[in-house]
Amino acid sequence: MTKRSNRVKEVILKRSTFIIFLILILGAFGLLRIIATHKDIDDVAHIDLPIIELLTQIETYQLEQAIAFERAIRYAEEIEPGNNIALQGFAEADSTFRYLAELVDILLLDAEQAVVDALKQTNQEAQRIKLKGLLLSIKKLESDHTSYEIHALEVVDLLEAGRLEEAVFASERVESEEDQFNKQVEGVLMRHEMFTEALMKIVEQEEVLSMKWIVTLTLLFIILSLLAVYTFSYKIWRPLEDIRAGAEKIGAGNLETRIKLSSNSITSDIVDSFNDMADRLLYSQKEIDQFIHFSYSTADDLKAPITNLGSLLDMLGKDNMNASNFKAILNNAKKTNKQLEKTIISLIEVNKVREELASDKEDQDMDEVLKEVVTGFISRIKNANATIKKDFSDCPVISYPKSQLKVIFKHLLSNALSYRDPEKPLQIRVKSKKINGHTTIIFKDNGLGFDSIKHKEEIFRPYSRLHSHVDGSGLGLYIIKMIIDYHRGGIRVESEPRKGATFALRLD
After folding, report:
1. What is the pLDDT of residue 291?
2. How big is the CA angle at 479 (ends 278 and 449), to the nearest 5 degrees?
3. What is d(CA 2, CA 416) in angstroms, rounded to the nearest whole number?
4. Is the pLDDT reported for residue 3 higher than 50?
5. Residues 64, 208: contact at Cβ < 8 Å?
6. What contacts 453, CB < 8 A, 6 or more positions away?
7. Residue 261 reports pLDDT greater than 80
8. How many CA atoms lie within 13 A of 20 on its CB side?
9. CA-closest candidate to residue 480, choices 471, 489, 472
């Protein structure tokens, strides 16, 4: 009951949590957009700008290196004996060229390392693609600059050796390589700058788009929240109105009244409780009716032996009673007493079963329960030359009160033994199955059988006996149905005379 009474509260908490969740999504979305934008700006500040600065320095120093190379050639052309100015200018130009060449090499390595580090830092796929392309370009620049530097130094060495004509001829190739290198540096720098500018434009566009999304989602979440509140209120109000109307009908005596709702309804637990209450009221009313009928049947069943016993006692009080008549009357009195005793024992069993109907359910091994029941019928089973085949593989365990499960097996087995066909060995088959999610026991015998269509209702009435030649209380099937009905199960019987009987008992 506690779980059912908290159902509406749980739904309220879920709906409130849902609304809060929507608000958190909105906040998380805005935060993620800010983080993403900040990440883009951070990549520009810490990755793109330093690399642009390095490439700009490389371009600058390379131009200065080219100027120093040209100066070295010019001074070499002016070198004559005694021209110390030309010699000094050549030496300075040579030194400057070598220094700048080394500096460009270092900057190229720094640029390569900066790109490698940037690849490790960034998670943006577009940035990674651009950096990988840039890394290949820088490695190509390193290779081309090394080639340019080697050829330029060869020219300088020729100039130092005084081989001016060879140096001037070789310098043409160096100048071509220099021009190509400069263009490559400029191209790499321009592409990188263009990408950075495009990235900044994308960042600006994303900021505008983020604001649009935030506004749109805010409006959407407000609408969803209002719809959630409205539908929640309606889903509570409508069933409560149905419950009120249903209570009025039950109060007017219509115990068949039930409220139908979908299983996922907010108030399904309240409605289930109402329907359970109505089921219990209907069951109680039927129990009262059955008990009244049972009382009349019991009184009628007791009336005959009591009347007979009284008559026998009157006969024993007559003066003309001889020994032979006395013995016959005494034997009849004993038989009548046994009949009364059997009826009283059956009444005690009915009352005991009725008192134990609300017993707690526990997992029961049906094979073990049947074994316990069979133990009490060993002698009758041997006398009837009966065989019992069982199969509980499909559903070996059921949650059920053990005493009631034993009572069911006991009366089914007792009926099969009592109403066996004397012309053939008795065969009993017991199996369990899961049918539509319900545990069902199928009990089949090859006994005398009966017309199940004709006697469909009669067999479950108290003191009902279709075969008068067999002793019995006539309460076995009545007790079984009482147990099954309490647990909201069902019984289906199929039988024909001389063809045995099959009982399908849905236990839950």
Report:
1. 59
2. 120
3. 44
4. no
5. no
6. none
7. no
8. 6
9. 489
Q: Of all helices (H) and strands (E), which one includes residue 490?
A: strand 490-495
Average pLDDT value for the chain: 78
Calpha distance 304→301 (Å, rounded) = 6
- Tell me whether residue 468 is exposed, middle or buried, using C-beta atoms within 10 angstroms of its C-beta: 0 to 12, 13 to 18, 19 or more: exposed
State how far the Cα of 87 lies from the Cα of 81, in Å rounded to an integer.
10
* pTM of the complete model beyond 0.85: no
Token pair 């030649």: residue? 469
The amino acid sitting at 265 is S
User: Which CATH number applies to 267-355?
Assistant: 1.10.287
62, 64, 67, 71: CA torsion to nearest 10: -120
Summarize the confidence of residues 8-34 as an average pLDDT: 68
Q: What is the CATH number of domain 358-508?
A: 3.30.565.10
Residue 220 main-chain phi, psi, to 5 deg: -65, -45
CA distances from 216 to 25, 104, 209 (A): 13, 53, 10
* pLDDT digits 0-9 by tens, 320-361: 666 667 777 777 777 777 777 777 777 787 778 878 888 889
On the question of pLDDT at 270 being above 50, the answer is yes
Q: Which tokens is 322 given?
A: 């001889």
DSSP structure class, residue 363: E
- In the block, tokens 């490559």 appear at 184
Show Cβ contacts of residue 114 under 8 Å, excluding neighbours closer than 6 positions. 47, 50, 51, 54
What percent of the chain is predicted at pLDDT more than 90? 15
